[in-house]
From TrEMBL:
Residues 46-84 form the TNFR-Cys domain. It comes from the Eukaryota. InterPro entries: TNFR/NGFR_Cys_rich_reg. TNFR-Cys repeats lie at residues 46-84. This is TNFR-Cys domain-containing protein.
Length: 172
C-alpha cells in the first residue's frame, strides 16, 4: 500500500490546508535534495553547480556568455539563468542590460549618451568634485595678478634680517 505524505500549507487567510508532498526524482542526475518533506514544508531541492532550477522541478544548464560571444552581466543563480550583455561595461537592472553609470573626477565633465564618458574640462574651467555626474565645467576663479603684496613681504623679511644682523654685530 502506497502512503502519501502530506505537509501543512499556510495561506494568507490564516487557514491551513494539507498538501501532498512533491515527489523527488532521485534518478535525476541534476537534482539534489536539500531537505525532505516534513509536516512544515514540502521537499526542498536544488540543482548541481552549473545548473539552475527553471520554474518548478526542471534543472537547466546555465548559459555560458563567453561561448555566445557576450559578457556576463549577471551570474547564474540557483533559480535564474545568467544574463548575457553585449558590452563588458554593462550591468543588469530590472532584467535588462544597460550601461553602468559612470562618475567623473576633478577637472572632467560627463558627456551623457547611451555609453557615457568623461572628458577633460576646457582650459580655464574645472569641476572641483572628486566623484560627480556634472555635465558642464565651471569657470575657475581668477587668481590675483598684483604682486605688490608679495614684494612687500619680501622687503619686510630682508629689513628684519638686516636688523638682526646689525644687532648681532653690535654685540661684539
Amino acid at each position: 500500500m502506497l502512503v502519501t505524505r502530506r505537509f501543512v500549507f499556510p495561506s494568507l487567510t490564516r487557514k491551513t490546508s494539507c498538501e501532498n508532498c512533491s515527489h523527488f526524482d532521485e534518478y535525476n542526475p541534476y537534482l539534489v535534495q536539500v531537505d525532505e518533506c516534513t509536516k512544515y514544508h514540502d521537499v526542498i531541492i536544488k540543482c548541481h553547480a552549473g545548473f539552475y532550477l527553471n520554474g518548478g522541478k526542471a534543472c537547466k544548464v546555465c548559459t555560458n556568455c563567453t561561448l555566445e560571444g557576450k559578457y556576463q552581466g549577471q551570474a547564474c543563480t540557483a533559480n535564474q539563468d545568467a544574463k548575457c550583455c553585449e558590452d563588458q561595461t554593462m550591468i543588469v537592472k530590472d532584467g535588462k542590460c544597460q550601461f553602468a553609470p559612470i562618475f567623473c573626477g576633478r577637472g572632467e565633465y560627463l558627456v551623457p549618451s547611451e555609453k557615457e564618458k568623461c572628458l577633460p574640462c576646457e582650459p580655464g574651467s574645472t569641476n572641483p568634485e572628486l566623484r560627480h555626474r556634472l555635465t558642464e565645467c565651471t569657470e575657475r576663479p581668477k587668481q590675483p595678478t598684483d604682486t605688490a603684496p608679495q614684494a612687500a613681504t619680501a622687503t619686510s623679511y630682508l629689513v628684519g634680517l638686516a636688523l638682526v644682523l646689525y644687532y648681532l654685530l653690535s654685540l661684539e
